[in-house]
Specification:
Layout: E1 9-12, E2 15-21, E3 24-27, E4 37-40, H1 43-49, H2 54-61, E5 71-78, E6 85-92, E7 97-98, E8 110-119, H3 120-123, H4 127-137, H5 152-161, H6 163-168, H7 174-178, H8 196-203, E9 215-224, H9 227-233, E10 239-246, H10 249-266, H11 268-272, E11 282-283, H12 287-322, E12 333-338, E13 341-348, E14 354-362, E15 364-366, E16 385-388, E17 396-401, H13 405-409, E18 412-414, H14 423-429, H15 432-441, E19 445-448, H16 451-456, H17 465-475, E20 478-491
Parallel strand pairs: 4-5, 19-20
Antiparallel strand pairs: 1-2, 2-3, 3-4, 5-6, 6-14, 7-11, 8-10, 8-12, 9-10, 9-20, 13-14, 15-18, 16-17, 17-20
Pfam family, one: RtcB
Cofactor: Mn(2+)
GO molecular function: GTP binding; metal ion binding; RNA ligase (ATP) activity; RNA ligase (GTP) activity
Length: about 500
């Protein structure tokens, strides 16, 4: 799987990609493909992307009715459920469809970064004290147990009003909403479209990390690149920040399961036309498409509240450890971005036509540039913050929406480093205790519910986040603003 001598094609077995320009590779439209597919990657990353079913899944996704312009795989792409993780598709909201599989099971899995006025020197020597306090106070792992043991009225309110509920209940301040994508609420949600089983699963998980690759990580800023943007974001070298990565827990998983099953039954004819049943989709305008969209938006609200409660508890932990009010510690939200989502947005498609699309971002981050009306007022002049976590042994990045993102990627960029190894294989290749010991040698402290979780998330199972971000920056879809490095990390 290497490019030819001219560098114009890349042979990945059954799929051949043609080089459009540096870091842009295209699978030309053929057969029943409705649009071409593009992969944004260096050849190093492309070698890893081509090593599983990512390219096949990307090609299959172009068969979905109503896809416009081109489907895209980000530099961190890897195999997912039907639709690749790192995939983006703009699907016509009138003539196309919406696909739960192209959103994912963990609806609005996302990340938020909270700033502090603390420096790395303030934390050195207290890493394990902070680690233990966070692990004891932030619920993590499989199953139930959250910061709020909510009743059904609370679940309904969260699904309906998102972060507005958190503000009303004292879990947030107004500035938190102002620094969250969509101000932390999708008003087109409908809790009635979420099953009782899903609500029951979510009721005892409000304010919990969950398991897998979800985490809370204390980091230090090591580098800044665009000084004016870093200043607008309030980031400087040596500063301590906190990264929170989780989603809608069992509630979102159940909603995806429910609607996939219903759509497979109700729209079998459409399913028969697709090369993979995991791409099951409801035609735009059908009652299942509308119901799923409303339920998905409710899950988005739930996930934002989930991360907000974890951030609130983190503020409380820092207050105790550093004996200061969180406000005096400068613990303000920088931004919160969603990863697994399909939102109605207006984009320019073929021949300069503007269309309302369901923009499916599965393991991809919205990356709107400066001046876009949906960028929060605080960042309107510099562009939307983008948060791209690396592994717990590597750096993470803050980017800003790039000027080329709207044209190339429906206003999107990567969401992380992207896996190169399955969890099963990781547990064979790594031992959790050894990983923790090796990380501690780098002054990174990790605590998890089990050694298996640490093994599954070993740094070696991920792509090089530096390379992922380098490609994003080179393409102008997400520009480097700052780099961070782990201090301590808790996982489920």
């Amino acid at each position: 799987m290497t490019s030819d001598d001219a560098g114009e094609t890349y042979d990945a077995g059954e799929v051949t990609l043609h080089k459009v320009r540096d870091y842009v590779w295209e699978i030309p439209k053929e057969g029943d493909m409705r649009v071409p597919a593009r992969v944004l990657a260096s050849e190093t990353l492309l070698d890893q992307i081509a090593d599983d079913k990512t390219l096949e899944q990307l090609k299959n996704s172009t068969h979905l009715p109503g896809v416009r312009k081109h489907n895209v795989c980000m530099p961190d792409g890897h195999q997912g459920y039907g639709f690749p993780v790192g995939g983006v598709a703009g699907i016509d909201a009138e003539e196309g469809c919406i696909s739960p599989g192209a959103v994912g099971y963990d609806i609005n899995c996302g990340v938020r970064m909270m700033k502090t006025d603390l420096t790395y020197e303030d934390v050195q020597g207290r890493e394990e004290e902070l680690l233990d306090a966070l692990f004891a106070n932030v619920p993590s792992g499989l199953g139930g147990g959250g910061i709020v043991e909510g009743d059904m009225d609370a679940v309904e309110a969260i699904l309906d009003r998102g972060m507005e509920w958190a503000l009303e209940e004292g879990w947030a301040v107004e500035e938190d909403l102002a620094h969250c994508e969509d101000e932390g609420v999708r008003h087109d949600s409908d809790p009635a479209k979420v099953s009782q089983k899903a609500k029951d699963r979510g009721k005892n998980q409000i304010g919990s990390l969950g398991s897998g690759n979800h985490f809370l990580e204390v980091q230090r800023v090591t580098d800044t690149y665009l000084d004016d943007v870093a200043d607008a974001y309030g980031l400087e070298e040596g500063q301590i920040v906190v990264l929170i990565h989780c989603g809608s827990r069992g509630l979102g998983h159940q909603v995806c399961t429910d609607y996939l099953r219903d759509i497979e039954k109700a729209h079998a004819g459409l399913l028969d036309q697709l090369p993979d049943k995991e791409l099951a989709a409801a035609p735009a305008g059908s009652h299942l498409a509308e119901d799923y969209y409303d339920a998905m938006c409710a899950c988005i609200n739930f996930a934002w509240v989930n991360r907000q409660l974890i951030m609130h508890r983190t503020r409380q932990v820092f207050e105790k450890v550093f004996d200061s009010e969180w406000e005096s510690l400068g613990m303000d939200l920088l931004y919160d971005v969603a990863h697994n989502i399909a939102k109605k947005e207006t984009h320019t498609v073929e021949d300069g036509e503007e269309r309302e699309l369901f923009v499916h971002r599965k393991g991809a981050t919205r990356a709107f540039p400066a001046g876009h009306e949906e960028v929060p007022g605080a960042y309107l002049d510099v562009g939307q913050p983008i948060i791209i976590p690396g592994s717990m042994g590597a750096g993470s990045y803050v980017l800003r929406g790039g000027e080329e993102s709207m044209d190339q990627t429906f206003g999107s960029t990567a969401h992380g480093a992207g896996r190169t190894m399955s969890r099963t294989q990781a547990k064979k290749d790594y031992w959790g205790g050894d990983v923790q010991d090796e990380l501690e040698q780098e002054h990174i402290y990790v605590k998890a519910q089990s050694g298996a979780t640490v093994a599954e998330e070993a740094p070696g199972v991920y792509k090089d986040v530096d390379e992922v971000v380098r490609v994003s920056d080179a393409l102008g879809i997400g520009d480097k603003v700052a780099r961070t490095f782990p201090v301590c990390n808790i996982k489920g």
